[in-house]
Amino acid sequence: MLAKLKQFLTSHSQAITPEEKARQLDLAAVSLLLEVVFADETLSEEEAELLPQLMIKALSLTQAEAEVLIDEAKKIQGDSISLYEFTKEINEQCDVEQKQKLILAMWKLAYADGQLCQYEDQIIRRTADLLYLRHSELIQMRNLAMDSQA
């Protein structure tokens, strides 16, 4: 499915509207958030509640739009083979501040259930690296997320 999506996007890259481009970016961001949620192979109640809230706030969506986007991203995320597929889209369209906000949201999801799994930590660190964020920015976002949990 992802190969078909890539083929479609490549063949229609000149015809992509700004709305479609924004949708691709939203899907990439939500897919990365889902990577964190499913890193420990469990979806806690806290994570399930926090994910749509983060999306509503960050992407200015309604609850229904967030749910649809989550379902769509689950399909794409499940077929993905690497984080690069998602970070490439984000690198093309986002500035450093937006990337930091995404990493902050990922940390918040990782800490939502009260414990940080090593796999969650690894995914967030790899994502930050692929987004060309400095280690100090990664740690700053982690500390902000931890402070918001307290």
TrEMBL record:
CDD domains: terB_like_2. InterPro entries: DjlA_N (IPR007791), TerB-like (IPR029024). Residues 27-143 form the Co-chaperone DjlA N-terminal domain. Gene3D superfamilies: TerB-like. It comes from the Bacteria. It holds the Pfam family TerB. This is Co-chaperone DjlA N-terminal domain-containing protein.
